[in-house]
Design brief:
Enzyme class: hydrolase
GO molecular function: N-acetylmuramoyl-L-alanine amidase activity
Structural class: alpha+beta
Strand order of the largest sheet: 1-4-3-5-2-6
EC number: 3.5.1.28
Oligomer: single chain
Organism: Bacillus velezensis
CATH architecture of the largest domain: 3-Layer(aba) Sandwich
CATH topology of the largest domain: Lysozyme-like
Protein name: N-acetylmuramoyl-L-alanine amidase
Radius of gyration: 22 Å
Shape: globular
CATH class of the largest domain: Alpha Beta
Strand content: 25-35%
Helix content: 10-25%
Order of helices and strands: EHEHEEHEHEHHHEEEEEEEHEEEEEEEEE
Length: about 350
């Protein structure tokens, strides 16, 4: 049975703020709302406020509500004004993800059915599905990721799509033949502002994820064919992705003129007297990570912030309270502080 959609569309006078660009969608992006509001409240808040953040659908345990027309873009993926996520993907927000429980599970189940319906309507396969994290690295959909169920959710969508008689894949062309090689891997660095990792050796194949400038990848020696080489990339959460990139946008340390660094001591005191065991880079936040006075985000006081992309010395990591990812113990302005584990990547 077709899932009905309630339309509560943003007023046209707000198009310039919420959805300024015409769009022909190519992907569907899954989000978790990270709060416990209903779909009606999510859409009402989004269409009524003066912020640019926007999304096409919100789904709770009872209904699907649309806030942005599907022929307009929405600002939901954090990959910039011309990013593929923001400009070419349909945003689906799953409600009640903060607390989880029965309401969230019902909302996710309805979202799975609805996403399958969207795929069927467009003749797409599950290769058109993306998570928010794929576009800019943000830890979203947070509940699905923290429970390690992304592949399970995709499989459930595929099963629903099969019931609807939809395609398993969007591509009608034969896949590019993979070059079989036993080549070893060598560290490379992304030199483009943004580099798409693709499922095949061509610019028309599906995007696995987009890597920002400076990302470290492992390039497989001998894998290059027609300018495309095979790489692996592991993010700050330990998830590993693989695919093909245009090799002119990656360079080895030797090509960049970098010398092999000398081994660093495992720990050293800084001017605070606290021993440092390394550094982390702030990731997965919109602008900055909060530094807390204790490893408990529900009871801590804020000591300050560290900007996205900046580095900070650490003295270790602790489990703490009220965060499944634990906390980095950082050295902040000469004092010991704590940053949520999901917002730091050790370097």
């Amino acid at each position: 049975m077709t899932i009905a959609v309630k339309k509560r569309l943003v007023l046209s006078e707000k198009y310039a703020l919420k959805c300024p660009n015409p769009m022909t969608p190519e992907y569907i992006t899954i989000h978790n709302t990270a709060n416990d509001a209903s779909a009606a409240n999510e859409i009402s808040y989004m269409t009524g406020n003066s912020e640019s953040t926007s999304y096409h659908f919100a789904i709770d345990d009872k209904e699907v509500i649309q806030g942005i027309p599907l022929d307009r873009n929405a600002w939901h993926s954090g990959d910039g004004r011309n990013g593929t996520g923001n400009r070419k993907s349909i945003a689906v927000e799953i409600c009640y993800s903060k607390s989880g429980g029965a309401r969230y599970r019902a909302a996710e189940a309805l979202a799975i059915k609805f996403v399958a319906q969207l795929l069927k309507e467009r003749g797409w396969g599950v290769d058109k599905i993306r998570k928010h994290q794929d576009w800019n690295g943000k830890y979203c959909p947070h509940r699905i990721l923290s429970e390690g169920r992304w592949d399970q959710v995709k499989a459930a969508i595929a099963a629903e799509l099969k019931v609807l008689g939809g395609k398993t894949s969007s591509s009608s062309s034969k896949p590019t033949k993979v070059v079989k090689t036993n080549g070893s891997y060598v560290k490379n660095t992304v030199i483009a502002d943004s580099l798409n990792v693709r499922t095949q050796r061509n610019a028309n194949s599906s995007i696995v994820l987009a890597l920002p400038k400076g990302s470290t990848v492992q390039y497989q020696k001998g894998s290059t064919q027609n300018g495309w080489g095979y790489i692996k990339y592991t993010n700050s959460k330990g998830a590993t992705y693989s695919g093909y990139v245009n090799v002119k946008y990656i360079k080895s340390d030797a090509e960049l003129g970098k010398s092999t660094p000398k081994p660093k001591p495992t720990s050293k005191p800084d001017n605070s007297g606290i021993k440092s065991v390394g550094k982390i880079k702030v990731v997965g936040v919109k602008s900055a990570a909060i530094v807390m006075d204790r490893p408990d985000k529900n009871k801590a006081k804020n000591l300050g912030t560290v900007e996205l992309g900046d580095t900070v010395s650490i003295s270790g990591s602790v489990k703490g309270s009220n965060n499944a990812k634990g906390y980095w113990e950082v050295i902040y302005k000469g004092k010991r502080g704590y940053i949520s584990g999901q917002f730091g990547s050790k370097i």
